[in-house]
Design a protein that fits this description.
Layout lengths: L4 H30 L1 H9 L4 H4 L5 E9 L2 E2 L6 E3 L4 E10 L4 E6 L5 E2 L7 E2 L2 H5 L4 H15 L7 E5 L1 H10 L3 E5 L3 E5 L4 E5 L2 E5 L1 H9 L11 H7 L1
Parallel strand pairs: 1-8
Antiparallel strand pairs: 1-4, 2-3, 4-5, 6-7, 9-12, 10-11
Helix pairs in contact: 1-2, 6-7
């Protein structure tokens, strides 16, 4: 009470500022911890590209977009990354600054040594909750189909990570060629898009790449879904 009023006010403002900074750091830290995408970015932030890619002119990535195993009517998610329903091999050429890709239909039949015949999308699910084993089996299955294309890295995206990445890059602009209207409460899909250009957020983009039927009830082929992906 002996201090001047302005000193006490300034001290109070400083104290609130320190609390605000501490709260902000805690919030950011919690967000990063909960997000596998942000956690991976933080881990690799200080690693220069030549360290990550060993000075290569290009790298080949295997992108797996995985389905979920859910309990009856979607009331509980049993496995966030089950069958790899999207399988895309992408080459990133640093010199030419282009990206090219090839999609592999999910129903392609593959036999790995020691396994019977399976659809290629099943191998990731066969790894169960062991994510490294699931990734390894899926990569080996793709190498059976493309034996002369070495895979440098395999990236697994579940529904949550896919949405987060799309939102992180500021949404995606897509031209829709037909009316897309479909709702599946158990599967978490609710999409209603008219033909034309749309800027899709993470959730709508996830519904778009998972879209199976149009308003007339016609099921999309795997090739049409790959085109959307």
């Amino acid at each position: 009470t002996k201090r001047p009023l302005w000193v006490r006010v300034l001290g109070g403002v400083f104290y609130l500022g320190v609390l605000g900074v501490a709260l902000g750091i805690g919030t950011v830290g919690g967000t990063i911890t909960r997000s596998p995408v942000l956690s991976a970015m933080v881990r690799n932030y200080n690693r220069p590209p030549e360290q990550v890619f060993a000075g290569k002119d290009s790298i080949t990535l295997l992108l797996l977009g995985c389905d979920q195993d859910v309990y009856y009517r979607g009331t509980q998610v049993l496995n966030e990354a089950a069958r790899s329903d999207m399988i895309l091999v992408a080459k990133v050429d640093f010199k030419k600054k282009i990206i090219t890709g090839l999609s592999i239909p999910r129903d392609t039949v593959v036999r790995l040594p020691g396994y019977r015949l399976h659809k290629i999308n099943a191998y990731h699910a066969m790894g169960g909750k062991d994510r490294e084993k699931a990734k390894e089996l899926a990569t080996r299955a793709v190498q059976e189909v493309l034996p002369n294309v070495p895979i440098d890295r395999t990236i697994v995206l579940n529904y949550s990570a896919f949405q987060e990445v799309v939102d992180m890059v500021g949404r995606v602009r897509v031209k829709v060629d037909r009316k897309l209207k479909y709702e599946d409460k158990a599967g978490g899909i609710d999409i209603d898009l008219e033909p034309g250009w749309h800027t899709l957020d993470g959730y709508t983009a996830m519904c778009y790449v998972r879209f199976r039927k149009n308003d007339a009830g016609r099921a999309l082929s795997d090739f049409e879904r790959q085109e959307n992906q």
